[in-house]
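Collaborator request, handled under Task 6.
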Amino acid sequence: MNKLNNISQKVKYITTTEARKNISEIVNEVKYSNQVYAIGRHDKIDVLIIKFPEYYNKNYTEITNLNANSNSFDFLREEPEIYTLNDLKKKYV
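Structure tokens returned to the collaborator:
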């Protein structure tokens, strides 16, 4: 099975040729619609194009900023709170 068939429905896979031809449209779609693009060649993803965080905190790394400002952890909104703030402070502060 082609590896590219397993990528999320939210990610659009395009070739490097398509990306070159349509870069302006791709940037607009990523910026305004939060679309994620996987760009690659020979059935292999080489890069992802994702929206840069609107709120960037220079005290944190790029990956922390991207994760904090993405939808990556939206699924946790449905999860019950199992720790109190005091529990977290005891363990991590």
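The cover message to the collaborator said: "The chain has one domain: 3-92. The first strand starts at residue 11 and ends at 15. Please let us know whether this matches your experimental observations."
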